[in-house]
Amino acid sequence: MKKLLLTVVLALCLTACAGQETTEATQPETTQPETTQTEASQTETTQPAETAQPGILSAFTAQDLQGNAVNQEILKGKKLTMVNVWATFCGPCINEMPDLGALAQEYADKGVQIVGLLSDANASDGSVSASQVELAQEIVDATGANYLHIIPGGDMMGLLYQITSVPTTFFVDETGKQVGTAYVGAKDKDAWAAIIDQMLEEVA
């Protein structure tokens, strides 16, 4: 039954999330799927995000999908961390997750990790929605995106408030300082690999 539910959810994401408006400040709008050539080219365009600032993740609190506490210590010992902000209603986010899962494995021995930042699990009162977390875990399992996914704590809300589209992806070094620019929109595996290689050169 869960597999059937997830299939229906994914189908709805692919058709509905492009026009979905945010209902809470912590649920950013999703970028539109490729419906026209013009829209597709806009999705692929690199856009600087207002949230990309030095030291953006130098100190933070969060939890993983299993409820374990997470903070900036996850960055230590990693040359580069790719933070992919996504939402359960976002078709483009879900579509790129299999590629991100593969990249997480391929770049692990190069000191690179990928972290998913789930943007729609927090209610307006700051509590975490158990049903959203369960749905997120089902999506992770179905897409093979077997890297760390975190739910932001209160001190990360300012970051989410500034992100207006998902997926949004940015990179930080082991101190939490932003590396390069941020990227709005989904990309395929080869495109992300090229960007990761470029970011590795910047932290070398």
Automatic annotation (TrEMBL):
Thioredoxin domain: residues covered: 51-201
SUPFAM superfamilies, A to Z: Thioredoxin-like
Pfam families registered for this protein in UniProt: Redoxin
Claim: Nucleotidyltransferase is one of the keywords in the record: no
Any GO molecular function: oxidoreductase activity
Chain segments carrying region Disordered: 22-50
Keywords: Cytochrome c-type biogenesis, Disulfide bond, Redox-active center, Signal, Signal-anchor, Transmembrane
Location of this chain's protein in the cell: Cell envelope
GO terms under cellular component: cell envelope
CDD domains for the chain: TlpA_like_family
GO biological process: cytochrome complex assembly
Signal peptide as annotated in the record: 1-18
Protein name in UniProt: TlpA family protein disulfide reductase
Species per Swiss-Prot/TrEMBL record: Candidatus Faecousia excrementigallinarum
